[in-house]
Give the backbone structure.
Amino acid sequence: MARPGAACPPPARRVVVAARALLFWALVYSYCGVCACIAGLRLLWSIGRRPGETFRWAVRENPPACLNDPSLGTHCYVRIKDSGLRFHYVAAGERGKPLMLLLHGFPEFWYSWRHQLREFKSEYRVVALDLRGYGETDAPSHKENYKLDCLITDIKDILESLGYNKCVLIGHDWGGMIAWLVAICFPEMVTKLIVVNFPHPSVFTEYILRHPSQLIKSGYYFFFQMPWFPEFMFTVNDFKVLKSLFTSQATGIGRKGCRLTAEDIEAYLYVFSQPGALTGPMNHYRNIF
């Protein structure tokens, strides 16, 4: 018998690792099922209250004027050689100035950085990117194309395609996760790192598993593991969930008098109401575990 504190022999260690993996995946899919049940109950409640409106949603045919506001910068595209994907971005500020690269979160796109594009263009070449699968950037159909390795490589390749070897890297929410990993994998490419609303990835999963309150707040990570149903729930009542994320008291933008305008909301609805526009963004999360 091994002494207390001695290292476990390899077979025993493999059993421990397998048991922990089994418990981890049991938790992931159990909580996924719980979130799906809650979403299903909400759907039934909506059908009971407003059966005619529940399944009504519309594709926005024309972009609102704010998406073509020249004060925000110029719409540009770059095709990455290795992946073959075409990325869309909006750039402001003179070429040759230090690069500030902005990575948005979910459910967002380049327009979330409109204030930063205006604010920093006098000092930087500011580039607000549509991440892989978002907005006008190409969206591969298979969820395996959204693994973290692919997302990290996207940023490296885009930086090089823009003619830079380093940048000020800013990420919010899911873009913050990508920004952390780019800085970890390619520290020489990041002169400054600014992350908004996302913890360091080395502590993220462990913190969720140890703190039930955070597990509840991050429930959508688990819900998004399901195929097609999360996308469908976003379309219910003409994208009520999407509107609520930006306007509700709990999660919306509305503090200190800073509110989204009706045109701002329409910009998000225009992007995410397009056929298949929600699948790419959710595929990012379908690889996180």
In short: Residues 17 and 40 are 34 Å apart (CA to CA). The mean pLDDT is 92. The chain has two domains: 13-60+225-286, 69-196.
